[in-house]
């Protein structure tokens, strides 16, 4: 082949390749996935947990827990189960979810249903058998998770001690701190979030009313998870309930909360 003809062929090939490249759509870069929200750390010192058992009652071995089938969801912390031929209501021990007509009621009920609806569960008793109407139990799934704890860890429930049934209160309180740190559930805010607050100072005085002049009832400690029920007009004080079921007014500056009190 003559050099001139070879050069012409090369030029023609290059022109065709350039035209084809110009017709191809410009690739759109794939955006990087959003970075996960970093977990928070408490800026205070957690108190040393008390030594000894969580409650005064001797726990039954696992092989003596009652097997049941969940047949209904009442709300976020109560279910209906079949034990043999009997249908019973079961109230989860050691935690609370929002009541009907409170923010978060439906979210907590839905979370409960996702965990247990139709499941075979195992019922662990603490001290009391019932509250006159409902069995009081820690409820365990077949995979080893405690439902009471999972709902707190999901951020749709708070730990609350109802003595003498307090065997697992330390693990429930730890689950609340985990949910706060990861901004799960109501800790992440939202239109239907119940207002939760985490104590972020070593000790937070609890007053009988909004104001330093009001009598002091006690104190909440670093890492206590609180339910918020009201806020003073100027916003400096919150009416709360703590994990020991006590309540009062605390300074808003001593807590971290995702949702404004309603």
Model description:
There is one protein chain. The protein has 262 residues and is an alpha+beta fold. It is 21% helix and 27% strand. Among the domains are: 62-159, OB fold (Dihydrolipoamide Acetyltransferase, E2P) (Beta Barrel); 196-257, SH3 type barrels (Roll). It contains 4 helices and 14 strands. Strand 9 and strand 10 form a beta hairpin. Helix 3 (147-153) runs parallel beside helix 4 (169-182).
Brief summary of the model shown:
Helix content is 21%, strand content 27%.
SSE layout and pairing:
Elements: H1 3-23, E1 66-73, E2 78-83, E3 86-92, E4 95-96, H2 105-116, E5 120-124, E6 135-141, H3 147-153, E7 158-159, H4 169-182, E8 196-199, E9 203-207, E10 216-221, E11 225-231, E12 237-241, E13 247-251, E14 255-257
Parallel strand pairs: 3-6
Antiparallel strand pairs: 1-2, 1-5, 2-3, 4-7, 5-6, 8-11, 8-14, 9-10, 11-12, 12-13
The helical percent reads 10-25%
Spans of at least 5 consecutive residues with low confidence? 19-35
Query: What gross morphology would you assign?
Result: globular
Helix count, per DSSP?
A: 4
Q: How many strands in all?
A: 14
Structural class: alpha+beta
User: What is the average per-residue confidence, as pLDDT, rounded to a whole number?
Assistant: 88
Strand order of the largest sheet: 1-2-3-6-5
Using the 3D structure, state the CATH architecture of the domain at 62-159. Beta Barrel
What order do the helices and strands follow?
A: HEEEEHEEHEHEEEEEEE
Q: What fold name stands as the CATH topology of the domain at 62-159?
A: OB fold (Dihydrolipoamide Acetyltransferase, E2P)
Separation of the first and last Cα atoms: 88 Å
Radius of gyration: 28 Å
């Amino acid at each position: 082949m003559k050099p001139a003809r070879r050069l012409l062929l090369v030029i023609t090939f290059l022109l065709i390749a350039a035209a084809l490249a110009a017709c191809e759509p410009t690739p759109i870069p794939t955006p990087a996935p959003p970075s996960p929200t970093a977990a928070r750390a408490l800026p205070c010192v957690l108190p040393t947990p008390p030594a000894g058992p969580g409650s005064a009652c001797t726990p039954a071995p696992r092989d003596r827990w009652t097997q049941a089938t969940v047949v209904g969801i009442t709300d976020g912390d109560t279910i209906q189960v079949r034990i043999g031929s009997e249908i019973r209501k079961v109230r989860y021990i050691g935690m609370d979810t929002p009541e009907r007509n409170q923010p978060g009621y439906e979210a907590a009920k839905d979370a409960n249903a996702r965990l247990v609806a139709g499941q075979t569960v195992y019922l662990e008793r603490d001290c009391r058998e019932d509250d006159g109407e409902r069995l009081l139990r820690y409820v365990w799934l077949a995979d080893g998770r405690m439902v009471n704890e999972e709902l707190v860890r999901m951020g749709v429930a708070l730990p609350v001690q109802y003595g003498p049934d307090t065997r697992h209160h330390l693990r429930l309180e730890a689950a609340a701190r985990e949910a706060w740190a990861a901004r799960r559930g109501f800790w992440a805010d939202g239109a239907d979030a119940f207002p939760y607050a985490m104590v972020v100072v070593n000790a937070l005085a609890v007053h009988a009313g909004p104001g330093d002049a009001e009598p002091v009832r006690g104190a909440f400690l670093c890492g206590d998870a609180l339910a918020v029920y009201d806020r003073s007009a100027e916003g400096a004080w919150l009416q709360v309930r703590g994990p020991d079921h006590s309540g009062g007014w605390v300074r808003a500056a001593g807590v971290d909360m995702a949702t404004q009190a309603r």
